[in-house]
Specification:
The chain crosses the membrane at residues 27-47. The chain is rod-shaped. By secondary structure, it is an all-alpha fold. It has one helix at residues 11-53.
Length: 54
């Protein structure tokens, strides 16, 4: 069985797993960066609103 689960090494599956892990880490990094940017924007807007109303 070529490329089967019980057959020898499947390099394509290994590569796909590594690329999938890299993709997941990249998505988590982008999501984390988006959360930080959103928090920073909300904080700055709140500070600006407080200084305007005071």
């Amino acid at each position: 069985m070529f490329g089967g689960r019980t057959g020898g090494s499947d390099e394509l599956a290994d590569t796909d797993g590594a690329l999938g892990g890299l993709w997941l880490r990249s998505m988590l990094l982008h999501a984390g960066t988006g959360v930080v940017v959103a928090w920073l924007l909300v904080t700055l807007i709140n500070l600006r609103n407080k200084t305007r109303s005071a």
